[in-house]
UniProtKB/TrEMBL annotation:
Listed GO biological process terms: negative regulation of apoptotic process; protein polyubiquitination; regulation of signal transduction; ubiquitin-dependent protein catabolic process
PROSITE patterns, A to Z: FILAMIN_REPEAT, HECT
Known catalytic reactions: S-ubiquitinyl-[E2 ubiquitin-conjugating enzyme]-L-cysteine + [acceptor protein]-L-lysine = [E2 ubiquitin-conjugating enzyme]-L-cysteine + N(6)-ubiquitinyl-[acceptor protein]-L-lysine
EC number: 2.3.2.26
Keyword terms: Membrane, Transferase, Transmembrane, Transmembrane helix, Ubl conjugation pathway
Filamin repeat ranges per the UniProt record: 145-179
Record-given protein name: HECT-type E3 ubiquitin transferase
GO molecular function terms attached to this record: ubiquitin protein ligase activity
Pathway(s) it belongs to: Protein modification; protein ubiquitination
KW Repressor (keyword) present: no
Length: 692
């Protein structure tokens, strides 16, 4: 169309020229031609001006502010997304940990940028949103047109920076910037699939994998030519003799997994301790023990673990609690049995009748200490300590096989690693597998906010295991709301308060503090039945199951349980050492005084009794039959403390944890973290940089 108009003007110019020469007799004049040219120019530029005006009008109306007026529209004093640019003050890619900045600038006349212009800066890295500090405008001339932004990248990866004006992206937005991990931090470097005891075979290469991470726990990235492999080292010592061992080792870097692999080969069977260092400093979980077996012993251990069968290993019981006076005057012949759940010590009366002496739970809290060779029997010795029972000292010619079998069974039960994160993932995986065939569709029901516990008990009275595995859709009576996860989360939080708050008397504490851990109340009111404990167990199991599903289903138990209670949940025997966490005043007073000073410095004689207050009245309870007449002595103080713990830690056995058998393979602290979260905060950790 524009070509036709231009052609029309050229034809008229030609006619006007011919008219002056007398070759054309039409009525065309210069005035007529100039008028046509103005009409053509108007026809060409009016649409462009109209489009720009409409675009500017849309920008001003989207900001919904009184700052823009008709005068600003005609003078051009308004922000236009396509006329703004961003300048980044770092080179791409950058390294995490540094505070970086960029400037959003309006090109053109000076314009005071402010909050009224609707400037929005959004920075994301995957599903994580990054906080940004923005400063708009300024007093000096260069700063008037700019918005200055700062943020700190702590996660390595690709970042998306979106800059919007009046809900419109500026030119080039969103910007993609990559941040690389920092240098290795010795406190964050860790051994993968950590185990406190590593089992090897003589002459067979064993692989140890290390993940080098920076101070923000990002997996470090290296060029194969620039990696400092010479700074990684492993030092191995023989446990019994203490001499250094120089095994055949090789340290390489795997570019695919970005891990350091250390290959070691030991030629002599025995027990060793290894220390993995970076820059001559021990790394996290870099200290562990190595048990080297012969090929025959290794095959025996593998068959035992694979078949989940067990056999007895002859040993000599040298002492029980070597720090007390209960040591054995003569070594007793016993047999060690390592099962998938326990380490059992038995003796045979008349060589036929078995008698169980001691049992140790198969968990990381049970520790083995290797102590050289017994002078009388000539067999290697070891001590077994689980932190609750008396320390047992044994001499056994198959000591290495017993310890290796124990370690392999334990790793198989907890998922192959002793770190909390790996055990948690294994727990969640087993829980999902256990209930994989159960439906998880929505199950609606209505409860009353005023009588939450009673109405919930009534609503879930006929629920089966399949019903408890379904996704609850909660409606509060008399309230409007659609449960898309928020009402369900609020329901579980309020329900946990109703169940586990000590003021409700279903659970109680050893001392009156706001954050004191709770346990079942042995003196509960008559209206609280055993069914309430069973219901509380189902609620805890439901929260654990929802957390295993992850995402928006994750629920937390709003309660802190005592260590003794958690120990009983996973089948461990309670011990007076649990008082240090559950009742610090009792532990620092009576318990430590008896352990350190005995009974000689007591002002009054102590008997096998305990005192407690019920309804303002002090009552005395015998810890054993005839305990009121049995005096506590230095020889019987351990028995007294044990009896005191057994009495104070009695609880309702109806507290059922939703039939989660896999829970029994976890450590007390692991169970505590899964159910209650962290209990202590480190100032150093709070000061350290975060990955958020």
């Amino acid at each position: 169309m524009y070509f036709i108009i231009i052609k029309y003007i050229l034809i008229n110019l030609s006619r006007l020229s011919n008219r002056e020469k007398g070759e054309y007799e039409g009525d065309i004049t210069w005035a007529f031609l100039i008028k046509d040219i103005f009409l053509v120019l108007a026809f060409l530029f009016i649409p462009i001006v109209a489009v720009n005006a409409w675009d500017a009008f849309c920008v001003m109306t989207r900001t919904a502010t009184q700052k823009h007026g008709l005068l600003n529209f005609f003078t051009g004093k308004y922000l236009h997304p396509q006329r703004c640019t961003a300048t980044f003050h770092w080179s791409d890619p950058a390294v995490v940990g540094n505070t970086v900045s960029f400037v959003v600038q309006r090109n053109g006349r000076p314009y005071p940028i402010s909050n009224a212009d609707g400037v929005v800066i959004e920075i994301t890295q995957g599903i994580h949103k990054i906080g940004v500090v923005t400063e708009l405008g300024g007093e000096t001339s260069p700063e008037v047109n700019t918005a200055r932004c700062k943020f700190t990248a702590r996660r390595a990866g690709l970042y998306s920076i979106s800059i919007l004006l009046a809900n419109q992206h500026i030119k080039g937005s969103p910007f993609l910037k990559r941040f690389l991990p920092g240098p290795p931090d010795n406190s964050k470097i860790a051994v993968v699939q950590h185990s406190s005891t590593v089992v090897c075979t003589t002459g067979v290469t064993h692989h140890i994998f290390i993940e080098p991470r920076d101070s923000y726990l990002n997996l470090c990235l290296f060029d194969k030519e620039k990696i400092d492999l010479h700074n990684y080292s492993i030092n191995i010592k023989e446990l019994e003799g203490g001499w250094d061992v120089k095994p055949e080792n090789n340290i390489i870097y795997d570019e695919v997994t970005r891990r350091i692999k250390i290959d070691i080969t030991l030629q002599r069977p025995g027990c060793y301790v290894a220390n993995v260092s970076y820059c001559n400093s021990l790394i996290t979980n870099g200290k562990f023990e190595i048990i080297v077996l012969t090929e025959k012993e290794c095959s025996k251990v593998q068959k035992t673990v694979a078949r989940r069968s067990y056999e007895g290993y002859e040993a000599r019981l040298l002492a029980v609690d070597k720090n007390s006076r209960d040591s054995q005057s003569k070594a007793k012949k016993v047999y060690c049995y390592v099962t998938p759940k326990q380490l059992i010590l038995k003796e045979f009366l008349l060589k036929v009748i078995p008698k169980r002496l001691l049992t140790f739970r198969l968990c990381p809290s049970t520790k083995f200490v290797f102590e050289g060779t017994d002078s009388q029997s000539g067999m290697p010795t070891m001590s077994i300590d689980d932190g609750c029972q008396p320390v047992v000292r044994l001499a056994c010619k198959d000591r290495n096989v017993v310890c290796a079998t124990f370690s392999q069974f334990m790793l198989k039960n907890i998922g192959g690693s002793e770190t909390f994160k790996d055990k948690q993932e294994h727990f969640y995986h087993e829980l999902r597998r256990l209930h994989s065939r159960r439906p998880h569709d929505r199950l609606p029901f209505t409860v009353s906010r005023q009588k939450l516990l009673e109405s919930t008990l009534k609503a879930t009275k006929g629920f089966t295991v399949n019903d408890w595995c379904r996704s609850f859709e909660v409606t509060f009576q008399g309230e409007e709301g659609i449960d898309w996860g928020g009402l369900r989360r609020e329901f579980f939080e309020l329900l946990c308060v109703s169940l586990f708050d000590s003021s409700n008397e279903l659970f109680s504490t050893f001392h009156e503090e706001p954050q004191a851990p709770v346990h079942p109340n042995p003196f509960r009111p008559k209206h609280l039945k055993l069914k309430h404990y069973e219901f509380a167990g189902r609620v805890v199991g439901k929260c654990l199951y929802e957390s295993a599903l992850g995402g928006s289903y994750r629920q937390s138990v709003k309660a802190r349980f005592t260590r003794s209670f958690l120990a009983q949940l996973i089948g461990l025997r309670v011990h007076y050492k649990h008082f240090s966490h559950d009742d610090p005043s009792l532990y620092s007073g009576k318990v430590l005084h008896l352990l350190n000073h005995g009974t000689e410095q007591l002002e009054e004689p102590l008997y096998f009794t305990d005192e407690f207050v019920v309804d303002g009245e002090c009552k005395v309870i015998e810890l054993e039959p005839g305990g009121s007449s049995r005096l506590v002595t230095d020889e019987s103080r351990s028995q007294y403390l044990d009896a005191l713990a057994q009495y104070r830690y009695r609880l309702a056995q109806a507290f059922i944890i939703f039939r989660i058998e896999i829970l029994f393979s976890l450590l007390i602290r692991t169970t505590f973290l899964l159910m209650c979260g962290i209990e202590e905060y480190s100032i150093a950790d709070l000061k350290a940089p975060s990955c958020c």
